[in-house]
TrEMBL record:
It comes from Aspergillus oryzae. One of its GO terms (molecular function) is oxidoreductase activity, acting on paired donors, with incorporation or reduction of molecular oxygen. Pfam families: p450. Signal peptide: none annotated. This is Unnamed protein product.
Length: 185
């Protein structure tokens, strides 16, 4: 599905089908609605929170939607449902956009990683990790996973007790990367 025309509230794909998009302006794209949503979040929050909120507030955008934030980025398909994620990553093997790299690369140790690679390179990298993603392998690491979960929960409780503002995104990403790194390797 490749978007070629953006109209009010919809993207028309190459098959002539309308795809959901948040309220759109021919000059501002989706920037105006994104700016309104940004006001609902703490000033130091990331744009990912706006995309998550947008998926619940814009009609028809619950599973995913196109968003146009030009000139800051290329138009993107934001996927917010597991079923659509499976289609994008497995059924059709859609390429991951370059705009993911500044976010993913620092956590993944550089630009040559499984999370941003595509096509044959991704398949080769994924095969290295297949054994780690099996249910038997995951179950054999359950003790470690539960220990890490207890540490994660304690960190959340500590932040709640202090009443401070912290990056749940960064904390969760580190937790998930620790689990994946241990289980998949």
């Amino acid at each position: 599905m490749h978007a070629n025309t953006i109209s009010d509230q919809n993207v028309i794909d190459t098959d002539g089908e309308f795809q959901p998009t948040p309220p759109w302006n021919p000059i501002l794209g989706n920037l105006a609605v994104m700016a309104q949503l940004q006001k609902k979040w703490p000033s130091d929050s990331r744009e990912a929170e706006s995309f998550a909120l947008l998926s619940t507030e814009a009609p028809g955008c619950e599973a995913g939607f196109y968003v146009d934030v030009w000139p800051f980025s290329i138009p993107m398909l934001v996927v917010t449902s597991p079923a659509l994620a499976v289609q994008a990553c497995q059924t059709y093997d859609l390429p991951k956009p370059d705009v993911l790299q500044p976010f993913i690369n620092p956590m993944a140790g550089g630009s040559d990683n499984l999370f941003v690679s595509n096509g044959a390179h991704w398949k080769q990298a994924r095969e290295l990790f297949n054994h780690g993603f099996s249910m038997a392998a995951a179950m054999s690491h359950m003790t470690y996973i539960l220990e890490e979960a207890q540490v994660f929960v304690q960190m959340l409780k500590d932040h709640a007790r202090k009443g401070d503002t912290f990056s749940l995104d960064a904390l969760t990403c580190r937790y998930v990367m620790d689990i994946i790194g241990n289980v998949a390797l």
